[in-house]
Amino acid sequence: MLRQMEQFDDNMVSMQTSVRHEVNRLSQLYDTAVSQYFHDKEIAIARLAMLIECEGTIGIGMTPPTKTRNRPALCPAVSIGNTAMAIINEARDTLTGEGIEFTFRHNIPASGLGTMPKHELHLHGFNRVTAVLTAVLPFLRSKKRQAELVLEFIQSRRSAVDPKAAYTDREWQLTTDVRLLNRCQPQVKALAKAAAYLELPESSRTVRASLYFRKYIEMCNTLQDAL
Fold first, then answer.
1. pTM of structure
2. Mean pLDDT over residues 55-62, rounded?
3. Where in the sequence is the domain holding 69, given as residue range(s)?
4. Is residue 42 one of the residues assigned to a domain?
C-alpha cells in the first residue's frame, strides 16, 4: 500500500512537471505570436506612412455649399493615388485592419493613349483623418509637418463651443501653412467665384459665407505671393 502511494505521488509530480512545461511552452508561443503580430502591424503602418509620403497628400481642402449646408467649409483630408492596384490594395488592407473607413475611386482617363487608370483612396471626416494621421505620424518624414498642422486644425474645430462657428484666424493660418507646404496654388475658377459671390447683394445677409470667402481670397493672395 505504501509503495502504491509513493508511486502515485511520483506520478502526480511528474504530471505537474509536464503541465508546467506545457504551460510555459504555450505561454512562449503566445508571447511570440503577439510580438509577431505587433511587429507585422508596425511594419504595415510604416509602409502606409511611406505610401502617403510618396503617393499621397495630407491637406485641408475647400468644399462648396450644399443643399444641407449653406456655406463652404474647410475639410481635412488624406489621399493615396497610384496606377498600381497592388499598392492601393496594400493600403486598403492596412486601413481595414485598423478599422479606418475610406472611399475608393477608380479614375479612368477620358482620353490619351498610354495613360493608365488611376486608383485612389480618400479619407475625409475628423475621426477618419485623426485616426490615420495619429497612426502614421511616428513614421512620417517629409509630410510630418502637414500631419501635425492638420491634427491641430481638427483639435481646434473640436474644441470650439459652437461647431458652426466661423473659422478662427489660427485655423485659416493652419490651412494656409498646409497648402504652402504642399505648394498648392489657388484655383483661378474658385478665386473668381469667391470674388463674384462677394459682389452679390445677398452676400451682406450671409455673414458666415461672406467672411469665409473674404478669408479665402486673403489666403489665395498669400499663396500667390509665396508660390
1. 0.81
2. 93
3. 22-141
4. yes
